[in-house]
Model the fold of this input.
Amino acid sequence: MKKTLILILIMCSFGISNAENIVTAQYPDKITYNGTEYNLNSNPLEPYFDKNPENRPDMVSTALWRGYVGYFEIIDNELYLTDMKRPIGSYTDEDGNYQQKWVSIYRMYFPRQDKVKIDWFSGILILPHGKMVEYVHQGYASTYSKYWLLEIENGTFNEARKYDNKEFVKFKKRQFEVFEKTEEYRKLYAEFKETDESNDDTFVKSFISDFVINYTTKFLTE
Done:
């Protein structure tokens, strides 16, 4: 029962129609912030493809359900898409290591623009970096020693916060405590409760707490 609910909740979290596609770890999008490229535990292009499903790339594998890797950059306090890539095969490098071969598909979607402001996105971008603390073979569930959090409102960069792993956990706890008092939380909780046949209040609350950044678009605490 819990496995079914987890799949449904993950599906709701990431806005896709087939939850099994993200049970495995995913190729992350990339973002350049202050001149450094980071992996991105968020997918700012997804609202675009949700509104334009006929344009969505086909799934590549269970490790890349969305069919692309987006490359983003904060430029003059705005969030821009600068490239989109898709794997087209694999090869073995000089050291005998397996490598993916990638090709840009950006011009298929934005043929006249060198970069596109992502003005349809509002939310908190999660940039994990440093040492991996725990590997979890599911979506973006692995944890890291450091995090940047970037608050974006309609494509405009508002604020950045930097946390180590323990501070990040504490931040999510504080964020959830404030979120829990809102009407948005009550609606979300009710929706998730409808999918939980075991009627486990603790489990649903714990799940929303763990993924609170996916459901809040602003920093709610200092």
Notes: Confidence is low (pLDDT under 50) at residues 1-22. The first helix runs from residue 2 to 14. The radius of gyration is 18 Å. The chain is about 30% helix and 35% strand.
